[in-house]
UniProtKB/TrEMBL annotation, chains A, B:
<dbReference type="Pfam" id="PF00392">
    <property type="entry name" value="GntR"/>
</dbReference>
<feature type="domain" description="HTH gntR-type">
    <location>
        <begin position="11"/>
        <end position="79"/>
    </location>
</feature>
<keyword id="KW-0238">DNA-binding</keyword>
<dbReference type="InterPro" id="IPR011663">
    <property type="entry name" value="UTRA"/>
</dbReference>
<dbReference type="InterPro" id="IPR028978">
    <property type="entry name" value="Chorismate_lyase_/UTRA_dom_sf"/>
</dbReference>
<dbReference type="InterPro" id="IPR012702">
    <property type="entry name" value="CP_lyase_PhnF"/>
</dbReference>
<keyword id="KW-0804">Transcription</keyword>
<protein>
    <submittedName>
        <fullName>Phosphonate metabolism transcriptional regulator PhnF</fullName>
    </submittedName>
</protein>
<dbReference type="InterPro" id="IPR050679">
    <property type="entry name" value="Bact_HTH_transcr_reg"/>
</dbReference>
<dbReference type="InterPro" id="IPR000524">
    <property type="entry name" value="Tscrpt_reg_HTH_GntR"/>
</dbReference>
<dbReference type="InterPro" id="IPR036390">
    <property type="entry name" value="WH_DNA-bd_sf"/>
</dbReference>
<dbReference type="Pfam" id="PF07702">
    <property type="entry name" value="UTRA"/>
</dbReference>
<keyword id="KW-0805">Transcription regulation</keyword>
<dbReference type="InterPro" id="IPR036388">
    <property type="entry name" value="WH-like_DNA-bd_sf"/>
</dbReference>
Length: 243, 243
DNA sequence: GCATATTTGTCCGTATGTATT
DNA sequence: TAATACATACGGACAAATATG
């Protein structure tokens, strides 16, 4: 199978090749052997010089995806894409049963600020009403999966940052604050290149892709309680919508 | 607002900047004036030379996003990210009401082939049963939005390729073949870099992002009739899930 | 019409990164 | 490892088109 590599496109050949190989690995293309083809074979496949393939493999090795062993070949170290169900009952920490051994939510930052027009509309508040903003990172088996910015009405949830920091879960934090149950109203999904702080929070390399969800959760009375924008490392997750 | 541009990352600065500006345009950041800031301002914002900004703008002009006029500035020509609802009633040609003037489905290729294990499982058939495979492209206002590979059981839908080629719509093609109504059972969503034929079909440049959906449609009796893998140009669409 | 500031377009040269042989 | 070719990025200077008062 001959891959398409474009020159003079503003993307270095080695990066295009690295992206292609990462895709193939996550796709399970090399699952039978657990190894990459030889550098010579890859160079032939992509139609480039072996040096260029080596640059691509070095980049993948850098992010822990593969490991090259002299005299043996290039071993695949990691291949995993978690499946997140999206439904009325969507929670970060549930629905992943068995897919990850350890789940953790970490509070990066919290502030109280007046609601912007967008946040106000989503939470059904007047613009300028105080909101708690949480910056959080979701971690599965020690690997950062998502970075999220969440807004809660400050009148009802002024303490949620502290509780979340202690419990590591929005669901548990809301439970302590009297919300036994809540539902996902809507989810908007898009994709973009990772930028700025997300590169660092999610330990991504430039050019990496984010799956971005914008969602609203409401209590059982239908009152909005949380507006979030979550950025998922696209090569680690997929979403599943049952309709 | 200072954007993060990474050097020595394997992605040319002008491309990172072009991607950032495309994102901002689609995000509506410049809607008040309908123009980009001056090249000098952009160069300052991104912390690069004006020539580099010009390369990025040239690339955006190339894809019809902006148009530069000497002495005036750089005008925004197009700003569009279609919102696709995902629900039990998901169809390409519906739910886009008003978002695009002209919608079209084009048949690229069709074959009849035995069902692979994955296709067979999705369509609830035995492996090896004949299936019609359609390669299609969805076009809105003359711009390719999605490329899709669809499988239908050949016994019931052997003619669907021809009907689709004539009608330009899966829904209408199924209607002619006796399926008045059908529902979306499940949708899986992921994202990856565009590769190979998708670059050409969707007229994308390397490094572009795809939103990939894998879905199953069934008739009203619950029998699966269509299994599809659709690749959407991520900078032209978003998905919306109501739950 | 005129002068001036602003903005894009084009040219020069130089240094560095990328890819091949 | 070295030599080569090309793409990328920067800096500066000036021309051409447009907007403003």
């Amino acid at each position: 199978m001959r891959k398409t590599i474009e020159r003079r496109s503003g993307v270095a050949l080695w990066r295009q090749i690295a992206d292609g190989m990462r895709l193939a690995i996550n796709n399970g293309d090399y699952d039978d052997t657990g190894m990459m083809p030889s550098e010579a074979t890859l160079a032939e496949t992509f139609g480039v010089n072996r040096h260029t393939v080596r640059s691509a493999l070095a980049s993948l090795a850098d992010e822990g995806m593969v490991r090259s062993v002299q005299g043996v070949g290039t071993l695949i170290e990691r291949r995993d894409r978690l499946t997140f169900p999206i439904s009325r009952r969507t929670r970060f920490s549930q629905g992943l049963g068995g897919q990850a051994k350890e789940l953790e939510g970490r509070l990066v930052h919290q502030t109280i600020e007046p609601a912007s027009p967008i946040v106000a509309k989503a939470l059904n508040l007047a613009t300028g009403i105080g909101c708690v903003r949480l910056e959080t990172v979701g971690i599965a088996d020690g690997k950062p999966i998502s970075a999220a910015t969440s807004y809660f009405p400050a009148d009802r949830f002024s303490m949620i940052g502290d509780v979340y920091a202690r419990t590591g879960s929005i669901t548990r934090a809301l439970a302590e604050l009297g919300i036994d149950d809540y539902v996902r109203c809507s989810t908007e999904i898009s994709a973009s290149h990772a930028e700025g702080i997300d590169l660092r929070l999610l330990k991504l390399s430039p050019g990496a892709i984010l799956l971005v969800t914008t969602s609203v959760n409401a209590d059982t009375d239908g009152r909005p309680i949380q507006y979030s924008r979550s950025r998922f490392a696209a090569d680690r997750v997929r979403f599943f919508v049952e309709t």
